[in-house]
Write a structure and sequence with these properties.
alpha/beta, Rossmann fold, Alpha-Beta Plaits, 2 domains, ten-stranded mixed sheet, 15 helices
Length: about 375
């Protein structure tokens, strides 16, 4: 059976308008009762990257969360909202972006995904074991609410990538360290993780997306007016890539899914309902400078040329407030505050760009090696 993806327009974040758009999209997929049964406990999993106002388009907007809560309640189920931010608690991050207020108003628990447990994944193509949040496993099902935004390492963070939030925050750097700058290896982990957790329903907040150097404060909010939903995040992400006028191979999780025959990535085999892709296509969406090398160098040259070829995190010392959030999250621990500035040991930097992702001031950007700049001209 072909996967189905629903596309709807929504011009603003007014609660009633968002609810109508989300419900219409879900109804096109068969209605909420096709995904949620009476009496079930359903985890609603937004994107809570870091403590940022909802206008920044860094986190899932609270009105999307409210719409999902209402639909789950209408199905006679019990919603709970939860995530594991990279920095800070779920309570702190959700309070800043407005999701905590929604949970209080709707009388729904907001939980921290914080208890890490080891899980066997025998069906995994590459990763046979995970350390996941117990809270994400102790539910009957998951509704995944990603934000439509760019990501300097993975190109975009959509449905598949958003499930990485079910890895406890303090464990996330270990996965980045294990994958290093190998984007395909990291993408395979994300796909195995998604297929293991298999959220029942995915609803993308694309009303205001984030373009440019996302997924954090270096990106720029952009009004897109879109809500996209599907029971299949791989197919949904593939449709979104076409909406923003990118190629399948640009989104590394889509490329790996196609190469490994994991999920449907052929648009001809995906049923699109509601609005057509062409009617909502964004032809001038601004993409990030994707980091990570797609090839390897001879051993005796690698050490000398790596720093000149690979992109690296660059800190604007005028913007940096020395909050040390980047220092604390750095997987290999190669960032330090020395004499009132943050220094980076580039020889041991794995180019995971966790520092850029978490910086609240947008002080960390991507800087190409000078040889790479010449190659790209």
């Amino acid at each position: 059976m072909s996967p189905t993806v629903a596309i709807e327009k929504c011009n603003n974040y007014e609660d009633a308008e968002v609810y109508n758009a989300v419900k219409k999209a879900v109804d096109l997929l068969g209605g909420i009762n096709s995904f949620v049964k009476k009496g079930e406990k359903i985890l609603i999993k937004p994107n809570l990257l870091s403590a940022a106002h909802s206008d920044s388009a860094i986190t899932t907007h609270p009105s999307i969360v409210r719409a999902a809560i209402k639909l789950v309640k209408e199905a006679g189920a019990f919603p709970v909202v939860g995530d594991s931010p990279g920095i800070g608690s779920a309570q702190k991050v959700s309070a800043k972006c407005g999701i905590l207020d929604v949970c209080k108003q709707e009388d729904v628990p907001l939980i921290e995904l914080k208890q890490s447990v080891e899980i066997e994944n025998p069906k995994g193509r590459t990763f046979k074991r995970f350390e996941l949040a117990k809270e994400a496993l102790d539910v009957d099902g998951i509704i995944n609410l990603p934000k439509l935004k760019t990501h300097t390492q993975m190109f975009m963070t959509l449905g598949v990538k958003n499930m990485f939030g079910c890895v406890v925050g303090k464990r996330k750097p270990q996965w980045h360290l294990a994958a290093g700058s190998n984007r395909e290896h990291f993408a395979r982990m994300l796909i195995d993780l998604y297929l293991f957790l298999k959220p029942r329903l995915n609803i993308v907040d694309g009303i205001v997306g984030l373009e440019g150097e996302g997924p954090g404060s270096s990106g720029k909010p952009r009004h897109l007016g879109l809500v996209v939903a599907s029971g299949d995040a791989i197919a949904m992400d593939r449709v979104i890539i076409d909406i923003v006028n990118a190629r399948l191979d640009d989104l590394i999780t889509c490329k790996v899914a196609r190469d490994d025959s994991l999920g449907e990535t052929d648009l001809a085999n995906i049923e699109v309902m509601g609005k057509t892709i062409e009617s909502v296509r964004i032809k001038d969406f601004v993409f990030p400078k994707v980091v990570g090398m797609g090839f390897s160098l001879p051993y005796n040259l690698d050490k000398h040329l790596k720093k000149h070829l690979t992109a690296k995190p660059f800190i604007n010392k005028k913007t940096c407030t020395l909050c040390n959030m980047c220092v604390n999250i750095c997987p290999p621990g190669i960032m330090k505050e020395i004499k009132n500035k943050i220094e980076i040991d580039y020889d041991n930097c794995i180019r995971c760009f966790c520092c850029q992702e978490i910086c609240p001031e947008g002080a960390i950007t991507v800087k190409e090696g000078f040889l790479m700049k010449l190659l790209l001209k």
